[in-house]
UniProtKB/TrEMBL annotation:
The lineage of its organism: Eukaryota, Metazoa, Chordata, Craniata, Vertebrata. GO terms for biological process: maturation of 5.8S rRNA; regulation of gene expression. GO terms for cellular component: cytoplasm; exosome (RNase complex); nucleolus. Belongs to the C1D family. Its main location: cytoplasm. This is Nuclear nucleic acid-binding protein C1D. Residues 121-144 are annotated as: Disordered. It comes from the Eukaryota. It comes from Cardinalis cardinalis (Northern cardinal). It is found in: Cytoplasm; Nucleus, Nucleolus.
Amino acid sequence: MSEDDNNMEEYPTEIHDYLTAFEKSLGSVDEMLKTMMSVSRSELLQKLDPLEQAKLDLVSVYTLNSMFWVYLATQGINPKEHPVKQELERIRTYMNKVKEIADKKKASKLDKGAASRFVKNALWEPNAENEHTSKTPLKGKKRQ
């Protein structure tokens, strides 16, 4: 029996599955980082509008702090008692503010002209009603 076979028997299969998934995730993160690092930051920011720049900055700093959170956990330090927790909460607050701004930007605008035409056409006009009633008799009334 090899040493790997002995190690496999020492921990449950579920943990092995989690470790395999974690290793794949690390590979994905590594690929993403290589892609992001291949383009200079100034080139990337020039292509984006200010709102997109803010989103990129927030995602970058959130990712970095999350990775530090994981690092602390692997070192046996409770990240919930570390200042990184407050930093992540602060970043989430700014992410929510940026999301609100983006949502306001996407919100539909009121076309005042179209709204006034819609209301005008939907309202009852007394002259039009009088013409309508004079041309057709009402049901239930006898003609004289």
